[in-house]
Amino acid sequence: MNPKERYRAWAAATAELPLCFQPWYLDAVTEGGVWDVALLESNGAVVGVWPYFLKHKFGLPYITMPHFIKWMGPWLSPDPARRLGDAYEIVEKLRLQLPKTFKISIDCHPDFQNWLPLYWAGFRQTTRYTYTLDLSGDYEAGFNRNMRRNIKKAEAELAVSTEGAFDEFYRLNRLSFQRQGKEPTYSRTLLERHIHSLQQNQSVQIFFARDAQKRLHSTAALTWDTGRAYYHLSGDDPELRNSGAGILLVKHAMQWAARELQVPVFDFEGSMMPQVEAIRRQFGAEPMPYHRVWKGL
């Protein structure tokens, strides 16, 4: 059994593995390259993994992030008795299994906080932030006054449901890019394959906000694993943005995550953009750091 086959078997039996590390997730999103994994075992048990996405530019290999993947890089199996030196050794042995490339650039999972062994190996780093909310208590108490007012206004005008088509989700997701003068960085085919894979593995719920005339104002996709729910992808109709549908869907996604999934954390998956970050704070979310590390050009 090669490392990738071993990884598939191990991942299927490892409940705490983050969603975007799941082999089926990687299968659906790695377009224009291939994914593989470095894997380390000790006494027959997997102690660490490092999934990576390999592409080529001008015939030269490099490691980067696929679409719809927030984090890759090293992930160590939880072990409260593990000594720090042993953790360093696992990361180094995983790194040595990576293919030779002219460049590597990855965003590491927030669980991977100590990047010192990568620094010793010549990597550079910058700290980035996602925003998370603790769902275990009265999380709505953290909404600020302005957020509460806008949500109340939206609730009076809009209805949220899970009934809708992929075409509707795609249309609004694309419109959100076009409003900023951009085109999506991914194709419709890739997005559809990604959503279909999440649906097959019961890891996504899509919400739709409509008014009394059945006009679709906003849509959002919530994904999850055993530890977190992720506000993954969304879209708004630029002509209807003032209705507050976007923030209304955030609240509904939080409620669904807390009641239906019963996960402890709601993760906004970023963003570092000032205008987006401000909205995260208005929901009472707190910044959580993660490492972007790179080596080469």
Task: Characterize the structure shown.
34% of the residues lie in helices and 29% in strands. By secondary structure, it is of the alpha+beta class. It folds into two domains: 3-122, Aminopeptidase; 132-289, 3-Layer(aba) Sandwich (Aminopeptidase). Strands 1, 2, 3, 4, 5, 6, 7, 8, 9, 10, 11 and 12 form a twelve-stranded mixed beta sheet that branches. α5 (145-157) crosses α8 (245-261). The longest helix has 17 residues, at 245-261. It starts with a helix and ends with a strand.
For this entry, give a set of tags.
Aminopeptidase; 2 domains; globular; single chain; alpha+beta; 12-stranded mixed sheet; 12 strands; 297 residues; 34% helix
SSE blueprint and pairings:
Layout: H1 3-12, H2 23-29, E1 34-42, E2 45-57, E3 60-64, E4 75-76, H3 84-95, E5 103-107, H4 116-120, E6 124-134, H5 145-157, E7 159-161, H6 166-179, H7 188-200, E8 204-210, E9 216-224, E10 228-236, H8 245-261, E11 265-267, H9 274-282, E12 286-296
Parallel strand pairs: 3-5, 10-11
Antiparallel strand pairs: 1-2, 2-3, 2-4, 5-12, 6-11, 6-12, 7-8, 8-9, 9-10
Please summarize what this structure is:
The protein is an alpha+beta fold. The chain contains nine helices and twelve strands. Strands 1, 2, 3, 4, 5, 6, 7, 8, 9, 10, 11 and 12 form a twelve-stranded mixed beta sheet that branches.
Q: What is the molecular shape?
A: globular
Under the CATH scheme, which architecture of the largest domain would be assigned?
A: 3-Layer(aba) Sandwich
- CATH class category label of the largest domain: Alpha Beta
**Sheet with the most strands?**
12 strands, mixed
Task: Give Rg in angstroms.
Answer: 20 Å
Helical content stands at: 25-40%
How would you name the CATH homologous superfamily of the largest domain?
Gcn5-related N-acetyltransferase (GNAT)
**Helix and strand element order:** HHEEEEHEHEHEHHEEEHEHE
Overall mean pLDDT stands at: 95
- Tally of extended strands? 12
**CATH topology of the largest domain, what is it called?**
Aminopeptidase
Low-pLDDT runs of 5+ residues are none
- Strand fraction equals 25-35%
Total helix count?
9
- The overall number of domains is 2
Q: What is the end-to-end distance?
A: 35 Å
* Structural class based on helices, strands and sheet pairing: alpha+beta
